[in-house]
Design a protein that fits this description.
globular; 4-stranded antiparallel sheet; single chain; Structural Genomics Hypothetical 15.5 Kd Protein In mrcA-pckA Intergenic Region, Chain A; 30% strand; 6 helices; alpha+beta; Pseudouridine synthase
């Protein structure tokens, strides 16, 4: 068990930041260590709520044994459907309700766990550890195509393509309400984090808004229904909840979206937000995912 003797220079330091420097971990991992009860001060177990604790000038911190992010390994779990593959890359069909990668080695019900069952060589690729091979993410309750790198050279190439917004990503979504605008619209807006797991549309020109991110996407109406609209969304940028928050902003939240929607958005018996990653493409890479059963059922209900 690592033991850290505190000295006068440590007095007043914020606990989570101190753990980052002392243990060589990320702040998120430092906070997970606290949340798991792995850190104690003078024999008192600390928790997640102590992350902002100011350290005393003297004392002893103890940390239960753990592994650095690069040393961690996701456990193998049941496989997923593979949509397409090539040298150094793999596209899988992510089901709704399954996270992309684990946050803890004890987690097993993620996409990465399933991929490792069939492709153990992906371990250590890219960021390594519990993010091995991960190129991009989908919200836990969003279904569809997910692309991973299975070799470092391809992972680096594709990660750069994502960074430069050169990867084509097309989604299908069922929106609450009958859309009254043009058949196609371009949304150029700005978003900012509102809470750790929520964002909001902001005025990029307002000086009080810090770290506003410009987002771009094309929305095309595929089918007008009585109280809903089926659309295709092609995103040029990729930011947390980008599609969900911007469509809610223009008055048509994604059906089933409890975070950004309202009562009409929760109609049709939708078990989750009706957002599906239907296609991904870049140069020689192309993969498509058919609508999952729950998406089809809600669409038929809306019809």
């Amino acid at each position: 068990m690592p033991t850290i003797a505190l000295g006068g220079a440590d007095a007043g330091a914020r606990l989570d930041r101190f753990l980052v420097d002392a243990l060589g971990v990320s702040r998120s991992q430092a906070r997970r260590l606290l949340a798991s009860g792995a850190v104690s001060l003078e024999g008192r177990t600390l928790g997640y709520g102590d992350k902002g604790l100011s350290l005393p000038s003297r004392g002893v911190l103890e940390v239960a044994p753990f592994r650095l992010p690069g040393e961690q390994r996701a456990q193998a779990a049941s496989a997923l459907d593979e949509l397409a593959s090539g040298p150094g890359w793999l596209a899988v069909d992510k089901p709704a309700g399954r996270p992309v990668h684990p946050l803890d080695e004890r987690e097993t019900d993620t996409v990465l766990n399933a991929v490792i069952a069939c492709h153990p060589e992906i371990h250590g690729v890219g960021e390594g550890g519990l993010r091995s091979g991960v190129l991009h993410r989908l919200d836990t309750d969003t279904s569809g195509v997910l692309l991973l790198g299975t070799e470092d050279s391809q992972w680096t190439r594709l990660r750069e393509a994502f960074r430069r917004h050169r990867v084509e990503k097309t989604y299908r979504a069922i929106l609450a309400g009958r859309y009254q605008g043009p058949e196609e619209m371009k949304l150029d807006l700005a978003v900012a984090r509102h809470r750790p797991a929520k964002v909001r549309v902001v005025d990029e020109a307002r000086p009080r808004v810090s770290r506003a991110y410009p987002i771009r996407q094309q929305v095309r109406v595929l089918e007008l229904l009585r109280e809903a609209t089926l659309v295709e969304v092609r995103i040029e940028t990729g930011f947390l909840h980008q599609i969900r928050v911007t469509l809610a902003h223009v008055g048509h939240a994604v059906v089933g979206d409890a975070l950004y929607g309202d009562a009409p958005a929760l109609a049709f018996g939708a078990p989750r937000q009706m957002l599906h990653a239907a296609h991904i493409g870049y140069e020689e890479i192309s993969a498509e995912s058919p609508d999952p059963k729950d998406f089809t059922a809600v669409l038929e209900s809306a019809r």
